[in-house]
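Problem 12. The chain below contains 106 residues. Write out its predicted structure in C-alpha cell notation.
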Amino acid sequence: MIVLKKSPDQTGDRSENRRYARTKTSRTASLWSLDQRLITRASMVDMSAAGACLELASATALPSRFTIRLERSSGPDVRIIHCERVWQHEAMAGIRFCDGQSKATS
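Solution.
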C-alpha cells in the first residue's frame, strides 16, 4: 500500500522550522544608515526574537547593515536596534537583529 502525504501548502499547515516563533505586529519604524541618514520608513509585518519582516514605504534598496528605530505608541521613548538585511524583494524585507546592540533613548 502506498500512502501519499500532502505538502504543507495543500493541507493549509504553514508551520515552519524556525528557531523563534513569529508574532504579527503593526509597529511603525524608521530605518537609518550607520552614518545616521534616514533610509525610509516601514511597517513591521511580523517579529520574532531574532528579526522581523518589514513592509517599506518605498522599494528602496536596503544596505547590508543599518539601524531601525521603533517608535512607541505612548511616550517619547524610541528603541534603536542594529540590524542586517537577510532578504529583500521590492518593498518587502527580512531583517535580523544584531545581538547586544539595542538601547532605549528619549
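Discussion. The longest helix spans residues 8-11. Students who got a different answer should revisit the alignment rule from Section 12.3.
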